[in-house]
Structures are given as structure tokens and as C-alpha cells.
Amino acid sequence: MDICHVVILDVLHKVNGSRRSSGIYYILTGKKTSQSLSDSQWFGVEHYYAALKGLTYADFTEKIENLLNEKWVTSIEDQVYKVSRQGEQVLLIEKKKLSFLKNLNGLKYTSIESLCWHVLTLYVQALSNSLYGNLEYSPIVRDHRAVQKVKSIFPRSKTERKEKAESLYREMSQLLLNLDRLSVDVFVRKLSGYNRIGSTFEQIARETDISQRETILRFRSVLHAIIYNSVVKHQEFPVFHSLFCSFTDLPALTKSALRTYEMLNNGKTLQQIMELRNIKASTIEDHLVEFAREISEFSIHPFIDEEEIQEVKKFYNSTKENRLRPFKDAFPHLSYLQIRLVLAKEGGNYAAGSSA
Amino acid sequence: MQLEAALKQLYDFSEFRTGQREIISDLLKGHDVLGMLPTGTGKTLIYQMAAHLLKGRALVVSPLVSLMQDQVDQFKQAGFKRTVALNSFLTHDEKQAILKQIKDYQFVFVSPEIIQNPFIRSILLSVEWSLFVVDEAHCISQWGHEFRPFYLDLAGMKKEMGKPLCLALTATATPKVRTDILHHLDMNDAKIHVHSINRPNISIFVEYFEEYEQKFERAMKLVEKLKGPGIIYTNTRNAAEQLVMLLQEHGVNDVAYYHGGMDPDERLLVQKQFLQSQLNLIACTNAFGMGINKADIRFVIHFHTPSSIEGYIQEIGRAGRDSKQSVAILLYHPADLEIPFHFIDHELPDAAQIDYLFSDHMQKDHHTFSEKLQLAGLSETGYRFMEYHLNKNGLLNKSGISVDEKTAFKLRLKQKIEQRKAEKIKSLRMIETWVTDIDCKRKGLLNYFGENEFEQTDFCCSNCEAEISFFYGSHDQRNTFYEHWEEELKRLFRQEVYKQA
């Protein structure tokens, strides 16, 4: 079974008919809109955000057709699908085989994964070659920022290099031993070092006899697990942490939202930011929702009272409602922004349970 | 002898290759130089050494971004760390960072387009340059096979830089093109060093096919028999991928394709794998090669006929840089040139596109040409061509141009386009004639570049009865087998060795 089918089926299952398939396509291909960002969290599918990067819409609809033909999903209205009983069973079985999918962390890491990978692979290549005394290797990464990063942290003395190699080897083995063999195999084949340039996804797919899409997802699942552990268990993984910390410390915001966040921190008011940047109120609102979701220190209290926050949460818990409209009907005195802020702030806890 | 000492010190070589010494020496004496050196004879060494010995900074104009990156890599690997490329691939922040430290660089690679940017240009002009290098200088001539209009403005740049020493380099310029280079770069008193394009260690084979499909069979057989590493050039990305798939189906695994449509990370891996001899064969479009410095390439197969003799010379020139006997094999089918012929019509703007650009509703909407260019659906080359000529005539961002002015300009443009097309068609006819000619293949190529005499070589060409079987053999397989991830991690970080020690 094509891995795309499993992923799409899983997302359709969690969204449970609350969004059109185009909305699901945007989540899976990682469209950077407030809607896709908050939806992915809202429905507890943030790990799948950007999982099928580069999939064309035509291919996507074809996959949906396949699912319909297999009777794993049914169409409840135009472009809206629910997973059938049969589909649920298939999903359960397939997901067991693809346990690595749970290590994906798309929403959090899509914006930094490529930079993190460039730093890691270049660092390993440089270290490995220096350990064997080969100074004339040709770097496999050109990304300027990654090169600068590796330069700035690369150990200077031979002793230091040996120490770092030992630590990194230990960190990597420890982490990889806890992941599934096939994904780890894909990941290590991708690394370059002394006397071996890493393989392309196409080569790995051929060598391991899995699809290229699956190869990429397996690779990313390992990469995401490494980044995740470098943050959460930074004491256990000091080398990983030193490679990624300058990227993982930044909140994962869209570029435009990051600008707004910086200006806000510099004491500008929302009104001033709108004027200075010549952006609409709705854009600023989207940014605020992003902050609520991504930045734990960002308080939504200036925008809504604690009492009302609790009311909205309560309503969510009793109804498991996933659409904004019913919230607005229940709390006509609250603005959409206020409701969205609460849901974004609490989304992680609540939306994750929404599929149960 | 001082130069030899520097050569030894910088590169640990004891001898210069053809032409290198004379050109460096002329530069050091303060002469501008036009150098035509055969492919693969180390043109970069010339300006590396010259800049080093002049203790100055060099601005290098290079036509292809991908080539630039390779050159920067090679410069750094050769120990010239203060090298950088300014091109459109950089983000705004990266460009800023480089420009801020422009003083710290010794070699700056630029495209002719990027120095049109007034801001970048002003920063470049704020520092002193001792050397202005124009690489692939044939791009300056509209008679050259890769005409790039913005090359025509380099003389202006040179002047604004305060006329530093100028070095124009090419591997493939006919006498007519060489005159053009001197003229357009304003190099009146330049020393001219022209060397034969002949590469005696490359045998030249042309094979004819009546059925296109037969070429696949032949290519498979050649790859199986020939001693590698090798390159197969195709006209299309599709054909490159198709060949690789066929080879893999036949159990040949150390092959990969390479073309402009690939993800840049993956493409770079393929390139480095080939350089490391992890791959024995690359199937590629002409996007691959210019900057590839691999000495031991034993064969170059052309699956399609290239669109010019110059292009062909460049591509076969990737073989045998270690001076060992190598072979170039062209698989010819009469339909080969249909694609390039077709391409000529689409490369430059056609009548409809020109008419659109000059159409009248433009004035009503107050569009400038600059805005309209985006909408005309031009090819990349066509876009550059139009942009250049509009800019040159001060029309690019002007509105309210008179009808007379427009009509006159339109006419001139159409003439220019027709001229360029005629030139391209002629160049296709030339290679077609050369392919089908029964005379010595080497002689045909040399004549094209105005050379009439050359030494007879062994294994000359298919028309001089050379035997292709001479180039058969097995290649040395490099042991890069990957066994198990735990073993591979240990190897990468050299863990076992440490434990023993």
C-alpha cells in the first residue's frame, strides 16, 4: 500500500469530515497559511504537516479516488470525506507497520529541518574526514548558513575532534537504537563521511526496495526525532544540541509573523505595526493566533478574560466541536479572534484528543 | 624560474601545462591577455597564480551559476579560501553579508547579470581590483555558441573598475569570435595566446543509426564494455533518466542521472559521488560538466548530436584530463537535430511576442516594458535578450514612448533576432556536415577553428580506422559497500581504531 494513502487516510480520519479535502491537501503539503497551521494542530495532525511536500493536487485527488474505490472512505458532500469502518481497520493495521510516522514532527520542524540536516551532515562529513586525516574532501553542502554554523562550532584540536567524534557517535547510536531499523538504515545511508558520499533518496529507495516517498518520510522521521531529543533532552545529547540550538530556540513562525513579533517586543503597538508594515488587521490577527500557538510565553490575557477562556474550553470539552461557527453562536459577545486565540493556545492539549 | 618556484610552492606541481606559463608571465608584465587553451588544461590556475603573485584581488565573470559554485569549491579546496560567488541563488541576507566583507575576499565570482544591479556594482567598485577575468569569453560574441547579451557590457565594467589587467579565457572560439572578444572587451593591445583545440589523447568516434531505438542497445553495450568512468550526454532530461533506468534493469548499478530539474541537494550528492568514483557513469544533459574537474574520465558518449561544434568540443573535453588515452563516441541519428532546430525557434522571442511587447494598449495601462516583459511568456534566453536590448536603449522603465521610436526599435530588434537565428542554424548545419563527413573527424574539428595542420595521432578517429575495442576494459570498483548501519557509524567516526589504540 502506498504510504500516501495511509497518511491521507489517517488525516481524513482525524478531521472526520470537518474540512474539505483541499484543506487537508494544504496541511499535507505544508502550506504556510494560518488556516493550515492552526488546522493541523486543531485536529491533532501536526506531525503530518508538510508530510507530503511537493505532492501535486492532481496526484492528491487521484489518491482520494483510490481510497473511494477501495471503499475506505465515503463522500459525505462535495470534497468532504469520512473514513469507513473498513477504512479504520485498514488504517489500524497499516499504521502498526509504519510506526515511524509518530516520530514525524512536521509542524514544528518543517521550517528548520533542511538547515538542521545541512549542519548535521556537513559536520559529520568534516569530522569523519578529519579523523582519517583527509583534509581535501569536497563539502556536500553549500548552504551558506550551515557552512557558517559548522565553521563556528567545529573543534579545533585533534584531541577535541576525537572527543567530539566519540560523543557524537555515542549520542547517535543511543538515539538510533530506539528507532525502527529500516528508518535508521535509510538515515545512515544518507550521511556522508570519509570515503563515502551519502546516497540520494532515489538510490536508497532502490537499495532498500521501498518507495521514494516512504524513504523520504523515514529519513525525516529520524531527523525530527534527533531534533526533538536535542531540545527536550539536551543534557543527554549535548553535541546534537550544540548543532541545532540556534535554530530550535527560535519560535516556528512564518517570516511575516516573526517580524510582527519582533516589533511587538520592541514596544510597538498593534496599530503602529499595521501602519508601519502596511498590513491589514486580519493579517495581524493571524499573527497573534500564530504566537498563541507557537510561543508558550505569549499570554492571551490582554485579549480575553480568564473567565471567558474557561468558558470556551468547557464548551469545547462538552461538544468536541471543531468548527468556529458553533463557538461564535454559543458566545456571540466574543470575537472570532478571541475564540481562535483560546483554541490556538489550548489546541495542543485539546485537539490532540479530538479524534478519540 | 621564479614562476616555477611559485608553482611548486602553491600546487606542488613541477611543470606548467600548455600555455599557462606564457599567459601568467604576460599578465605579470602588465599586458592584457586573450587566451584560448584546449579544454582541461587548467585555465583557473592561471588567474589563481596571477592574482596571488600580483598580491591583488580578482573579479571573475562566469556564465553559469552552477559552474561558479563548483569553481568556488575547487578554489577553496586548492587553498584559496577567500573565494566567494555572488549570484541569484543567494538570499538577500547572504548577499548582504558577503558585500559587507567584500574587502576580505581575494576572488569574487559574478555573473554578467548580477553586476548590472546598481547596489552590488557600487560595492564592487568601492574596492580595488588587480585582475578582471572573463571566463568562457566566447559568450561575448553573437557568433559564439552561447551568446549572453550582458557580456557585451563588460567593457563598461572594466572601465569603471579603473581598467585593471584584463584576462579573457575560452576553450572554443573561432577566429571570428576571438576578434569579437577583443573588440567588445576593449582589449586593443592584448597579447594573444591561441593554442590548438586538439586533444590528441581523445579518440573520436561517430556511429550512424537508422533506427533511433538501436541507440539504446548500443549505449548499453558500450557502457558494459568500455572502461570507465564515463559520461553519457543526452539532449533531454527524459532520455538521461530513461538510460539510467534501462541500465539499472540490466544490473548496472553504479550509474545515476544528473540534470537541472533535480533537487539541488540530491544533484550535488550525485556529482560528488561521481567525483569520488562511487559512480562509474553519469547520464546527463549539458547542465553537467563545465565545472567538473575529474581527471580520469575515460569515455564520453553523446547519445544525441549536440547543437554546435563548440559545445561538442567542450563536452568531449571532459575526458582524459590525466592525459591518458580516452574515447568520445557520438551516436548519430538523422532526427537528432530536430530538437535543437525546433529549439532555435523558441529560444528568442517570436513575432507574436514582439508584437505583444510593442502593442498599443501598453500605453493606456501605463505599463513599462519591464512590467510587460514578465507577461510575454518568453524563454529565459529570450527574456535576457529583450531585457538587455531594452535597457541598453533606455526603454526598459520608460513610459510614453513615441510610436515612431517604437517602430524603429522593433525593426532593429527583429533584425537582430533573425541574425542570431541564422547564426544558430548555421552552427547546426556545421555539426551536421561534420558528423556525416567521411573525412578525418579530428581534421574536421580543427579546420572549424581555423587550424590546418596537426600531428597524426594513434587511435585518431572512426574515419581513420581506430578500433573501439581498444577502450574496452573493466573499471576498478571502489569499495564503498555499505553493510550495516552500526558498522557504518563506527567507520564514519573511526570508533574501533580508537578503542584499539
From TrEMBL, chain A:
Cross-referenced InterPro entries: Helicase_HTH, YpbB-like
Entry-linked Pfam families: HTH_40 (PF14493)
Domain of life, source organism: Bacteria
Stretches assigned to the Helicase Helix-turn-helix domain: 256-343
Protein name in the entry: Helicase Helix-turn-helix domain-containing protein
Annotated source species: Fictibacillus phosphorivorans
Automatic annotation (TrEMBL), chain B:
GO BP annotations, alphabetical order: DNA recombination; DNA repair
Record's keyword annotation contains Nucleotide-binding: yes
Name by which UniProt lists this protein: ATP-dependent DNA helicase RecQ
Segments forming domain Helicase C-terminal: 215-377
Naturally occurring in which organism (per UniProt): Fictibacillus phosphorivorans
UniProt-listed InterPro entries: DEAD/DEAH_box_helicase_dom (IPR011545), DNA/RNA_helicase_DEAH_CS (IPR002464), DNA_helicase_ATP-dep_RecQ (IPR004589), Helicase_ATP-bd (IPR014001), Helicase_C-like (IPR001650), P-loop_NTPase (IPR027417), RecQ_Zn-bd (IPR032284)
Pfam family, one: RecQ_Zn_bind
Keyword Heme: no
Domain Helicase ATP-binding: 24-191
Keywords: ATP-binding, DNA-binding, Helicase, Hydrolase, Nucleotide-binding
GO cellular component: bacterial nucleoid; cytoplasm; replisome
PROSITE patterns in UniProt: DEAH_ATP_HELICASE, HELICASE_ATP_BIND_1, HELICASE_CTER
Superkingdom, taxonomy of origin: Bacteria
GO molecular function annotations of the record: 3'-5' DNA helicase activity; ATP binding; DNA binding; four-way junction helicase activity; hydrolase activity
